[in-house]
Amino acid sequence: MSGIAERVRKVPVSGIRKFFDLVLSMDDVISLGVGEPDFITPWHIREASIYSLERGHTMYTSNYGILELREAISEKVKESYNVEYNPENEVLITVGVSEAFDLAIRAVVNPGDEVLIPEPSYVSYKPCTIFAGGKPVIVETIEENEFKPVVEDIEKKITEKTKALVLSYPNNPTGATLGKGDLEDIADIVREYDLTVISDEIYDRLTYKGEHTCFSSLNGMRENTVYLNGFSKAYAMTGWRVGYAMSSEEIIEAMMKIHQYSMLCAPIMSQKAALEAVTTGDRDVEEMVRQYSRRKKILVKRLREIGLSCFEPDGAFYAFPSIKSTGLSSEEFATRLLEEEKVAVVPGNVFGSSGEGYLRLAYAASHEDINEALNRMERFLTYSHD
Ligand SMILES: Cc1ncc(COP(=O)(O)O)c(C=O)c1O
Questions:
Q1: pLDDT digits over 304-325, tens only?
Q2: Which member of 79, 246, 301, 359 has the lowest number of beta carbons within 10 Å of its beta carbon?
Q3: Is pTM beyond 0.90 here?
Q4: 232 CA distance to ligand 1 middle (Å)
């Protein structure tokens, strides 16, 4: 008899991790696989953390996180999206958006509650929902609709058990973004069915066309929304593990309770670095966004040139080309590409069944690597299928 809890046993390990264990066992692989910036955290951010260590800042912080950091984040969100959160009790600093999402789900979901998750999507939403005793209900998005969730499709999946809706735009893996109009349509049903929205906006700054709209800035949505964001992507700070959640006092207090008993606080040295990032990091973000935007153009153009159709991604740092024309499955394509041409990409099906027939390529890589990877993919396409 297995000693492992049923709900944990039935969740498979992340498809991405499985794939990257394989990559790590090989030499000379060009990776467009990992979803993290290839930039190093800007020096002044690292320096702020080093300096705080030199001054002996090595203790626990408040469970909510350093107040100065919460104040700076509140200020930034107000300035960017004109939505106000009280830094005293409506902001929680977490160990990445990963922890923030887990806390949000655990804070709002009762056993058996249904959580609507548009897919393809980031890999943690479904497992975290199951670990929390909830039931993930998938809303498929398709390329023909620019990978945007269709309101009627969401509505069809709503039952009396539906508790929450996860939104994650700009999207990992598709690069899809939702405009203000799209979000307002979704807000209408959120209002009608009184849903809680967990809005993971970790890629908000990485938007290449139009302005990002923060879901909680929409009329009446602030109270229904748990807004999640973090430092990993925009500031190239994946290893620091800092994120945050903003919501009503009631929800933040509930999330804080779980965080208090399970995590205590995010590391103080990382919070110090995050404070420097949020107060003086704008120029770094703008420069990285310029570079991503250039790389995106090169990657999408080359993908189309080698015969793969590719949806135009307007956010994040991923392209999601279709490989349906090859007749290979996503898994077959990605595994053979890795073994035969030493290029690592992620099979689209790991992001949900509607990702089958696609690959995720991260353009958080140098121009040279993008070009060489695409040369190899082009060669692979000439012999890999009929
Ligand atoms: C959509 C999305 N949310 C959350 C995360 C995790 O972010 P963090 O490093 O802040 O835990 C990722 C990482 O790839 C992501 O793509």
A1: 999 999 999 999 999 999 999 9
A2: 79
A3: yes
A4: 7
